[in-house]
Each structure stands twice: as C-alpha cells, then as structure tokens.
Amino acid sequence: MLRILLLHNFYQQPGGEDAVFRAERDLLRAQGHPVETLEFHNQQIGSGFWGKLKAGLLGFYNPGSARRLREALEDFRPDIIHIHNLFPVASPAVLWAARRAGVPVVMTLHNYRLICPGALLYTGGQLYEKSVHQLFPWDAVRRRLYRNSALQTAAVAAITGVHKLLGTWQTGVARYLVLTEFARRRFLDSSLGLQHSQVVYKPNFISDPGAPQSNSQRAGHLLFVGRLSPEKGLHTLLAAAAMHALPLVVVGDGPLRGEVEACVATTPSVHYHGPADAAAVAAAMRHCRALVMPSECVEGMPMVVLEAFATGTPVLASRRGGPGEMVQPGVNGLLFEPGDTEGLAQAAHALLTDEVLAARLGAAGRASYEALYMPAINYAWLLAIYETVVAEARGEAPAATVPILHGAYAAQSRLIPAEDHLHKV
C-alpha cells in the first residue's frame, strides 16, 4: 500500500478546503493506506505590521516549514506527498524540500491563487482574468484584490511571480488536481507554463447520506447555504426574492448579513436561519425544493452542490465555474446567467410550480452523485493518479489510468462507457 503524506495550510477562517483535506485523509486511511498529515496554521502569523511583514517575507521561502517537512519525510518515509494548500506559512519551501528528498508531489488547486492574487477570478461583480497571463499582475495590485490591500496583494503576486521565474510551479509538482474543466483550461493557458499532462481533473466527493427524501415530503422553498458575501451572488438572489416573493431560506453568515436581515424584514417569503452545522445543513437540504447557487465568482466545486445531488435536490446555479459545469440544464438542475435577477426568478418559478420537474431533476442529481462523487469512485480516481506519479518518479512505465470526462461534465445522468472515460495521467 502506498504511504501518503498529506500537507495542508489552514486559513484563519475554516473553509471547504479543510473539509476536503480531512475527507481524503479519512478515505485513504479507511482503504488501509498508512497516512500521516503535516499541518500548518495561519493563526501563528503575528498581528500588527511586523507580524504581517514577517509572514510576507516567509511566504517566499519558510525555512522552518522546509525543516518540518524534512523531519516528516525522515520519520514517515512516504511514497508521495499530497498538498492541499501551502499559503502562506508552509510556503513553496516545502516543494523544494520534497524535490531534494526525491519524493513526488501532487497538489490540489482549490482556487486560482497561483494565477490571480484574489484567488477567485472576480472583482467588482465581474469575471476578472487580467492576471492570468501576467508574471506580475500590476492591475490586480491597483485593484487591491487581496484583502483590499495593495501591499498584501503585491506580496502575494510577488511570491507567486518569483516562483514562476524559479520554475518552482513547473518542476516542484508532478500533478496538479483541478476541480473543473474551466480550471484546467485556465491553468494550462496561463503564466505558469505547465505541461498538458501536469493538470488533471479530479472531483471532490462526500459520503452517501442515504436514500433521498420523496418530493411529497419536501417543503416548497428554495435554500441558499454559504458565505453571505457579494461574490456569492447574494444581491441578485435577494433582489429576485423581493421582486417575485420567492420562498427562500438563507443559511450562513458573512458581511452581507445585515442586508439579508433587512430583506427578511420587508419580504415575508424570505427567512434567515443564521449559520448552521453540517447536520442542520443536511436536514435543510433534504427538505427544500431546490438549492440555489447564484455565485458570480468562479467557484471550484462547492460541497453544498455535492450534498444537493446526493440528497436528490435539484440545483439552480449561475452559469459560471464549478456549479455551471456540474449542473446540466434540464437534467439535474437549471442554469441562469450570473447577476441575472429575472433569469434566476424564472428558473426558480419553474421548479417551485412544477413538482414533477423538480422530482425528475432531483433524481438525475442523485444519479450524478452516484456516477461521479461517491467515495469509492473518488478513491479509485485518486489512487490511479498516485500510482502513476510514483511510477514516474521511480522511472517505471506508468500503467494506471484515471477516468476523465469529455466536454463540460458530459452526460452526468449516466456513467460514461468504460472505453470512453480512461486516459493516461
């Protein structure tokens, strides 16, 4: 069995990357693999100017992180390292340490940090791709894409830019795992200069929650779950709900909480339930008519969409990023253009007034989950990538194959024939 070291840098605020890191750790251990983790935490970044300055400088190369990785390699002797995030504390130093030790690395790209300091390819309510082909994205600095700070944006841009010049991203990672075909195209056609074979698609997964709720047991409202922030399309959603009296339940917290509460005060059909734990979200998902994802940024693969599919819940999503690929319009959900209030309202009305349509789309969503996002399928996918990378590092001919999809998540409501969904990685 392959020995696997998982490395992750936790942000100060928990997020979906953390959940994926833990889920893959548990999945690999359940399959019998010796798995160790090496964790870094942004809480150790000092406060104030000097603390941020030190963190910024160490973001280029943190010798303490490199030392920790060398010690882990000596103690555990893994066959492969899988990184989920290395910014900023772990730093690219871990890639250099792994390379010197001769241990191959795969890295999941949960966002677009390597080609855009803001990580979301989004600003001012619009898709933003000016940074993608630039070694140092001056426009992103001018726009203060990272934490609304020109200085911090410049620091992120400098870190990624320096390591582009050094070839770190090209030579330090054997395979980058991306969550969407959109992401694969963007990273390949970018300033990173990656090889075609370096970037492969591998989706997230969730555990099976069991048989979906029948449609007759569901309430007739839409559900939003997520961070209450502009890039999530909250303004569009609240405007549509207010203008068309859409029955809507909002779950989450964030900077737009006040606007959500103001909408609730003037729109009787809208209800705010605040933040919720995983069990409460799962219960809410099983009882709503549809999940709505109006994101205007380029999402990766939101776990709430996987949860919706697994519970047989149709998804209304904007035609952008991961949800825009995962949702097949008229098959497992409906799509509308980002920022299109009327388009969102029309799609919502179609599902709220047609129980047969909602049931059909929900059933197809469950089929999508069974075809692509179950743990067993994901394990086979991940193992094929690991085995290929390890074989290459040892100078052996890779024999593993990994499933791919042709086009934008082609035919999710059925399994792609075996002869069509395998390729060398």
Report on this model:
There is one protein chain. This protein has a 6-stranded parallel beta sheet, sandwiched between helices. The chain is built from 16 helices and 16 strands. The model is unreliable at 404-425 (pLDDT under 50). Helix 8 links the parallel strand 7 (175-178) and strand 8 (199-201). The protein has helices spanning 16-30, 48-58, 63-76, 93-101, 138-143, 150-166, 168-171, 181-188, 234-244, 257-266, 278-287, 303-310, 321-326, 341-353, 355-373, 375-393; strands spanning 4-10, 35-41, 80-85, 105-108, 122-123, 126-127, 175-178, 199-201, 222-225, 248-251, 270-274, 290-293, 315-318, 333-336, 401-403, 422-424. The longest helix has 19 residues, at 355-373. Helices cover 42% and strands 16% of the residues. The chain is globular and about 60 Å long. Helix 3 (63-76) packs parallel to helix 4 (93-101), helix 9 (234-244) crosses helix 14 (341-353) and helix 12 (303-310) packs across helix 15. Its EC number is 2.4.-.-. It comes from Hymenobacter canadensis. InterPro entries: Glyco_trans_4-like_N (IPR028098), Glycosyltransferase_grp1 (IPR050194). It holds the Pfam family Glyco_trans_1_4.
Helix amount: 40-55%
When the domains are counted, the total is: 2
How many distinct helices? 16
Q: Can you tell me the CATH topology of the largest domain?
A: Rossmann fold
Q: How many β-strands, per DSSP?
A: 16
Layout: helices, strands, pairs:
Elements: E1 4-10, H1 16-30, E2 35-41, H2 48-58, H3 63-76, E3 80-85, H4 93-101, E4 105-108, E5 122-123, E6 126-127, H5 138-143, H6 150-166, H7 168-171, E7 175-178, H8 181-188, E8 199-201, E9 222-225, H9 234-244, E10 248-251, H10 257-266, E11 270-274, H11 278-287, E12 290-293, H12 303-310, E13 315-318, H13 321-326, E14 333-336, H14 341-353, H15 355-373, H16 375-393, E15 401-403, E16 422-424
Parallel strand pairs: 1-2, 1-3, 3-4, 4-7, 7-8, 9-10, 9-12, 10-11, 12-13, 13-14
Antiparallel strand pairs: 5-6, 15-16
Helix pairs in contact: 3-4, 9-14, 12-15
Pfam family, one: Glyco_trans_1_4
EC number: 2.4.-.-
GO molecular function: glycosyltransferase activity
